[in-house]
Amino acid sequence: ACSAFSQKSCEECLKNVSCLWCYTNSTCIDYPVRSIFPPSSLCSLSNARWGVCWINFEALIIAMAVVAGLILVSLTVCCCYCCYCRRRSRRRRLEEEEEQIARKREERRLQSLQRKHERKMKHDEIRKKYGLLQDSDNPYSRFENE
């Protein structure tokens, strides 16, 4: 089917996706599907056209390899960056949790000291009420029981 387009134009040949155009002898041939790249005995890569007429097969392969390489590099960079960000955010989250735990611990310690002080004040009032607490401002209070 592709050989019918030989000696015509490249555009007419490449309308069929299974055809390959060779500029050396202006022939349209079936694309060799058994091999990925057409063998040089059929047509050299610099003179072969497939898909579009304005770029040769060699440049097409190089361009596709460059694009694929760029995609792979960008995916690798994105994955590494995401892993780094995730690790950094996890570290930041742990630091925030540690700060929060330290803050709560300090709040509990201060509340405990406040409750302890309130209990001491209450017990001192009770001791004063029943005369069990010696007044430090009255120097003769210690001689009362003698």
Automatic annotation (TrEMBL):
GO cellular component term of the entry, any: cytoplasm
UniProt-listed InterPro entries? PTTG1IP
Reply yes or no: does the keyword Transmembrane apply: yes
Q: Which domain of life is it from?
A: Eukaryota
Keyword annotations for this protein, in alphabetical order, are: Coiled coil, Membrane, Transmembrane, Transmembrane helix
Membrane spanning stretches: 59-84
The coiled-coil regions, if any, are: 87-123
Q: What GO biological process terms are annotated to this protein in UniProt? A: protein import into nucleus
Entry's PANTHER family? Answer: PROTEIN CBG20567, PSI DOMAIN-CONTAINING PROTEIN
Q: What is this protein called?
A: PTTG protein
Classification lineage: Eukaryota, Metazoa, Chordata, Craniata, Vertebrata
Gene of this entry: Pttg1ip_0
